[in-house]
Amino acid sequence: MAPLHVALIMDGNGRWAQAHGLPRVAGHRRGADVVRELVESAPGLGIGTLSLYAFSSDNWQRPDREVASLMALFRAFLRRERRRCIKEGVRVAVVGRRDRLSAGLVREIERTEAATLEGSVLCLRICVDYSARDRIVDAANLMARNGDRGRDAFVRALGRAGQESDASLDVDLLVRTGGEQRLSDFLLWECAYAELLFVEQMWPEFGRESLSRAIDTFGRRERRFGAVPAMP
Ligand code: IPE
Ligand code: IPE
Ligand code: MG
Predict the structure, then answer these.
(1) 59 is catalytic
(2) CA distance 190 to 79
(3) DSSP state of 30
(4) What are the residue boundaries of the structural domains of the chain, listed by start?
(5) Terminus-to-terminus CA distance in the chain, angstroms?
(6) What is the CA radius of gyration of the chain?
(7) Architecture of the 4-219 domain
(8) DSSP letter (8 states) at residue 170
(9) Model confidence over 21-53: pLDDT tens digits?
(10) In this structure, what DSSP letter does residue 61 have?
(11) Is 70 in the pocket of ligand 1 (CB under 6 A)?
(12) Is the Cβ atom of 56 under 6 angstroms away from ligand 2?
């Protein structure tokens, strides 16, 4: 089977923290530990690309303190994990707008991307200040500027709009933790035929076992892409 593209909407950190009598940031911190665990187990589960929704463009509306701690956590995560990613063959790509991130964070991102460029075991796409709608609009503007038309050209434009070579990769499985059943502006184009899985677990509770179960569920789904079911 071709390596899977799995997208994860990491939701529920705040509620998890609240349920444990902790500040929201403690939930985000635990959430980052989960990411480490999943990166380790993803290749063994047949996953070639993992797209993580870490911070949406709409998340800027949160209180300044929460935004600041999320950005600090993200920076610390990159600094801490870089060496391990190089060793494990994980290529890190940070997806989304960069002009609203701090210069220090952008430097950390660039350093990590450059250092892990050769990784071929897993592509880890971390989406920060990401909005699928904005990206689609950017791609449409690029098309108009170049006089391009058609789906293939659009897919290429979508990649260029995010300065990515393989951004238009279709998602095979999208999992959202935290019980909500919505996409919240994540990978709208790429999820056209994704299998969707919504789980009640909060993100800090979603570990290796949960990902493995999600992949099992995915394996039992029949993907038809609009055609008739396969003959038994
Ligand atoms: C997901 O958890 C992390 C981000 C959106 C950055 P939340 O912070 O949304 O947690 P809940 O949904 O409030 O519990
Ligand atoms: C979606 O979660 C964004 C991320 C997980 C980064 P939100 O918590 O921001 O989504 P809504 O507000 O419940 O739709
Ligand atoms: Mg949430």
Answers:
(1) yes
(2) 29
(3) H
(4) 4-219
(5) 19
(6) 18
(7) 3-Layer(aba) Sandwich (3.40)
(8) P
(9) 999 999 999 999 999 999 999 999 999 999 999
(10) G
(11) yes
(12) yes
Q: Number of H helices and number of E strands within the chain?
A: 7, 6
Alpha carbons 175 and 214: distance in angstroms, whole number: 8
- Residue among 59, 134, 148, 185 flagged as catalytic: 59
Q: Is 12 close to ligand 1, i.e. is its CB under 6 Å away?
A: yes
* pLDDT tens digits for range 54-105: 999 999 999 999 999 999 999 999 999 999 999 999 999 999 999 999 999 9
Is the pLDDT confidence value at 168 over 70?
Answer: no
Amino acid letter for position 61: Q
Rounded to an integer, what distance in angstroms lies between the CA atom of residue 98 and that of residue 130?
9
pLDDT-above-90 percentage for the chain = 93
Tell how far CA 84 is from the center of its chain: 19
Q: How would you classify the pairing of strands 4-9 and 173-176?
A: parallel
CA of 28 to the centre of ligand 1 (A): 8
Q: Quick one: which ligand is closest to 14's CA? A: 1
**Ligand 3 centre distance from Cα of residue 12 (Å):** 5
Give the atom of ligand 2 at the shortest distance from the alpha carbon of 58.
Answer: 9
**Can you name the residues that pair with 180 across neighbouring β-strands?**
none
Please work out whether the CB of residue 13 comes within 6 Å of at least one atom of ligand 1.
yes
What does the pLDDT look like over 94-103, one tens digit per residue? Answer: 999 999 999 9
Torsion angle of C-alpha atoms 74, 215, 6, 116, degrees rounded to 10? 60
Provide the residue type at 63 as one letter.
P
Distance CA 94, CA 124 (A): 8
Q: Report whether residue 60 contacts ligand 2, using a CB cutoff of 6 Å.
A: no
Atom of ligand 1 nearest to the CA of 202: 14
